[in-house]
Write a structure and sequence with these properties.
Cytidine_deaminase-like, 2 domains, alpha/beta, 5-stranded mixed β-sheet, Cytidine Deaminase, domain 2, Dihydrofolate Reductase, subunit A, NADP binding
């Protein structure tokens, strides 16, 4: 068995915790000695031991002289937990195989350097692209100083997100909606505009399967119209943040008494300043933001060039005149925004397209 085999195992371990470790990356670690796995672990959530520390604890004295496989460069700094590099050196590990370097300037390259200085053989780049994709939200959060942004919506073959009377339940199939809950599970927060709240009264929780947490629910509500009796205020199933431009102290106090956090943002041209919104969410450790609609909100993110991934569920139906994405300021076809297809799946008649920036 080669390095790739054991790194594949480490990546699978990391995938198990995808969406549960924010604002930390998801990491898997496997320790091998004489060709056999003697310990394996993943990082459970922020504040708990990192994958390397957990695996070394499991291996104990057997870790001496072993090879350690890890999906992200071991940390060298004190954060919520002690540096993993120190634990690796202390355990007497002989060789470390790393999928990809950490983009964090506090760590990048320094973990490898420390290990080499301690006489440990280091190999970097095994399944590197797979590891970077697994933590693309973390890489964006660190390098761009904003959440990784996924736009998600369902539409008919002729491009409608809802009928002209705003009816949209359900365009996509049950199987598609279950997968959409997987997208929610992997996000730090789910964002919708106030019109979606007023029309649909969504819960924005993970309900299609058992999951350890619900994402934070975020509502863009410039005029503070959110109903006090809506699910996002009353159900207490997850934290809710309302972002507004209106300083209505009575309404804000009432929302805060229900446990809802209210943030103020600049309002211009009929919309909240999205860059200011994202800056606020970044400082609240929202690492991965899933934007679910409605059409106006999705359009505003696209117009502002604020997205990293687009996930579309295409249903085999015609609606005709309906609700669609708005004006993107494009006059000529050659100026259209072009994306690169990354995944194609089929869900009970629907086509799922996952696309990223070219």
């Amino acid at each position: 068995m080669d390095d790739q085999h054991f790194m594949e195992l480490a990546l699978r371990l990391a995938q198990e915790r995808k969406g549960l470790t924010h604002p930390n990356p998801t990491v898997g670690c496997v320790i091998v000695k004489e060709g056999k796995v003697i310990a394996q672990a993943n990082h459970e959530r922020a504040g708990l031991p990192h994958a390397e520390a957990k695996a070394l604890s499991i291996a104990g004295e057997s870790a001496r002289g072993s090879t350690l496989y890890v999906t992200l460069e071991p940390c060298t700094h004190f954060g919520r937990t002690p540096p993993c590099v120190d634990a690796i050196i202390k355990a007497g590990v002989k060789r470390v195989v790393i999928a990809t370097l950490d983009p964090n300037p506090l760590v990048s390259g320094k973990g490898v350097q420390r290990l080499k200085e301690a006489g440990i053989e280091v190999k970097v780049g095994v399944l590197e692209e797979e590891a970077k994709r697994l933590n693309e939200d973390f890489f964006t959060y660190i390098t761009k100083g904003r959440p990784y942004i996924t736009l998600k919506f369902a539409q008919s073959l002729d491009g409608s997100l809802a009928t002209k009377d705003f009816h949209s339940k359900w365009i996509s199939s049950e199987e598609s909606r279950k997968y959409a809950h997987r997208l929610r599970a992997e996000a730090s927060a789910v964002l919708v505009g106030i019109n979606t709240v007023l029309r649909d009264n969504p819960s924005l929780t993970v309900r299609a399967f058992e999951w350890e947490r619900n994402p934070t629910r975020i509502v863009l509500d410039p005029k503070l119209r959110i109903p006090m009796d809506c699910n996002l205020v009353k159900d207490k199933k997850a934290k809710t943040i309302v972002i507004t431009a209106v300083e209505d102290k009575d309404k804000i106090n009432a929302l805060q008494e229900e446990g809802v956090e209210v943030l103020l943002a600049e309002y211009r041209d009929g919309l909240l300043n999205l860059r200011e919104v994202l800056r606020e969410l970044y400082f609240k450790e929202v690492m991965h933001l899933l934007v679910e609609g409605g059409a106006r909100t999705l359009t505003s993110f696209i117009r502002e060039d604020l997205y990293d991934r687009v996930c579309i569920f295409l249903a085999p139906i015609f609606i005709g005149e309906g609700v669609r994405l708005g004006d993107l300021g494009i006059k000529r076809v050659e100026d259209a925004i072009r994306l690169k297809r990354r995944e194609l799946k089929f869900f009970d008649g629907d086509i799922y397209l996952e696309m990223v920036r070219e």
